[in-house]
């Protein structure tokens, strides 16, 4: 959980810069929005009624939700473009509705932890891969400006270490959803 916490906190220098400059400049909100939905679905997966004995998954992703909400709020406040604010608000609303509907469906249509774990686990894999792929959304900017300023090193390093630790955890716990998603994520980390 310590390395996962470092991953969630790795954008802190970026947000300190945003607050100091009172501008999001060319930074993208995509990685933070992707991380939020990722944490939300993993919290659902970590619930004892979905996947018992998964406390580390539950606790770190609850922490991740808090951190991402703070980052997204800062981004929203200092974003100078009204259109981008509307997009952020729409994505947040969509994420909230999606997780609420998913939660209701899982608990009303599926009656065993095995069923719930399977369906939520697959969804978690998809969103986990999206979270790890999201920093690639700035790749166009990196190529255009020939600068990695908007793709921070600490984020890439924390992502690499986090993927390694969660892969080991998945192998120890025999959790195929965590193992598969972090294996795929390691490919995205190599690209970034």
UniProtKB/TrEMBL annotation:
- One GO cellular component, as annotated: membrane
Protein's membrane topology: Multi-pass membrane protein
The portions of this protein that span the membrane are 30-51, 57-79, 86-107, 119-138, 150-172
Q: Which residues form a coiled coil?
A: none
Tell me the domain of life.
Eukaryota
GO biological process terms on file? protein homooligomerization
Sorted alphabetically, the keyword list is: Membrane, Repeat, Sugar transport, Transmembrane, Transmembrane helix, Transport
Record localization: Endomembrane system
For the keyword rRNA processing, the answer is no
Main subcellular localisation: membrane
- How far does the signal peptide extend, from start to end residue? none
InterPro entries membership = SWEET, SWEET_rpt
- Pfam families found in the cross-reference section: MtN3_slv
One GO MF term on file is: sugar transmembrane transporter activity
The entry assigns this protein to a family as follows:
Belongs to the SWEET sugar transporter family.
What protein am I looking at? Bidirectional sugar transporter SWEET
Q: Which organism is it from?
A: Brassica cretica (Mustard)
């Amino acid at each position: 959980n310590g390395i996962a916490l470092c991953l969630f906190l790795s954008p802190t220098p970026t947000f300190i810069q945003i607050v100091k400059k009172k501008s999001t400049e060319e930074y993208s909100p995509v990685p933070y929005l992707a991380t939020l939905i990722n944490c939300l679905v993993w919290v659902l997966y970590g619930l004892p009624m979905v996947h018992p004995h998964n406390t580390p998954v539950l606790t770190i992703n609850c922490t991740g939700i808090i951190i991402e909400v703070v980052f997204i709020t800062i981004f929203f406040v200092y974003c100078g473009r009204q259109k981008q604010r509307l997009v952020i608000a729409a994505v947040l609303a969509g994420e909230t509705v999606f997780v609420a509907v998913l939660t209701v469906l899982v608990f009303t249509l599926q009656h065993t932890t095995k069923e719930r774990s399977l369906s939520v686990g697959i969804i978690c894999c998809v969103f986990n891969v999206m979270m790890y792929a999201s920093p690639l959304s700035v790749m166009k900017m990196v190529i255009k400006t020939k600068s990695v300023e908007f793709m921070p090193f600490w984020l890439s390093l924390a992502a690499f270490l986090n993927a390694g630790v969660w892969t080991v955890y998945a192998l120890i716990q025999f959790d195929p959803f965590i193992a598969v998603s972090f294996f795929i994520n390691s490919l995205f980390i190599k690209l970034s």
